[in-house]
Amino acid sequence: MEQMKSPSIKLKGHLEKQDYEEINGLQKYCVMEDNVTLKLELDYKWSKALDKSVDINRINEFMFYDEGTLIGYIGICQFGRELEVNGMVHPEYRRMGVFNSLFSLVKDEWYKRKTTDMLLLCDNTSLPGLEFIKRTGALYDNSEYEMYLRGKPNLGSALNDLILRKAINKDAKEIARQNAMYFQVESVKEDLILPEEEAKRGVDIFIVEIDNTIIGKVHLAVNDGLGGIYGLGVLPEYRRKGYGREILMKAIDYLNERQVNKIMLQVAVKNKNALDLYKSCGFVETSKMDYYKLSK
């Protein structure tokens, strides 16, 4: 592509159906052409838009068009006090300033918010993405593997006294407490995860208990035949007793009951204990996402 003919930018607080379809189409093309992973959270964002739970005063969707065709996109996801930013540009429109233009607007939105840090996400194998992040001055923060279950899981015997209780909104503070402990994600009161609202978006949160005592949690999602396991954690005093494996077993059973075609999870590269557990149960690494931090 020699030059753009009629460029334009669209900014939105939440996705509408046409936006979702256009971004999803561009994502599929970029993933196929570049053989990379993108973490855009489109399905989750679309579900939030449908139930009208998005703050309309915040801009989260940044779209770049040429002659009415979407050629670039950056999305913001806010989790607690951090923003996560990921995006893409059509291969034929790279090195034309598309991403720079969108990212400048993303930074403007960031500075309007109280959040101190912004995380830039990039597939570890995406050279254009990593080059761009380097130019921003962002510093490496952490990495995360995406893993898929291959074959029949190797889980071992069940522990009959462990149960997964579906969380209710009264569990929101407990969920936030555990997230802060496992993932260093601090939630402000207005951003607390409400389990009953998450369930409407296809994400079921379970509190893990033994004899009515809470020992951990896990989040399970099903979308278009893909089962996802997220936020799995065991409280420190209950670790090294086989509970993590048991939670994983029950999570896989739950997802299989919903007839998923694939099961995936994400785990921090530095979390060696969890990584070893998942590998021993039949999960294999399929991609690695790097996180880089900018601070105000």
Percent range of helical residues: 25-40%
Number of domains: 2
Class computed from helices, strands and strand pairing: alpha+beta
Q: What is the CA–CA distance across the termini?
A: 36 Å
Overall shape: it is globular
Could you please say which CATH topology of the largest domain applies here?
Aminopeptidase
Strand content: 25-35%
Number of helices: 8
Q: What low-confidence regions span 5 or more consecutive residues with pLDDT below 50?
A: none
| Main sheet strand line-up | 1-2-3-4-5-12-6-11-10-9-8-7
H-E string: EHHEEEHEHEEHHEEEHEHE
CATH class of the largest domain: Alpha Beta
Number of strands: 12
Instruction: Profile the largest sheet.
Output: 12 strands, mixed
**What would CATH call the architecture of the largest domain?**
3-Layer(aba) Sandwich
As a whole number of angstroms, the C-alpha radius of gyration is 20 Å
Mean pLDDT: 91
CATH superfamily of the largest domain: Gcn5-related N-acetyltransferase (GNAT)
Q: How does this model look, in words?
A:
By secondary structure, this protein is α+β, with helices and mostly antiparallel strands. 32% of the residues lie in helices and 34% in strands. It folds into two domains: 7-137, Gcn5-related N-acetyltransferase (GNAT) (Aminopeptidase); 149-288, Aminopeptidase, CATH 3.40.630.30. It is built from eight helices and twelve strands. The chain has a twelve-stranded mixed sheet, with helices on both faces. The longest helix has 18 residues, at 17-34. It is globular, with a radius of gyration of 20 Å. The relative contact order is 0.15. The model has no long low-confidence stretch (mean pLDDT 91).
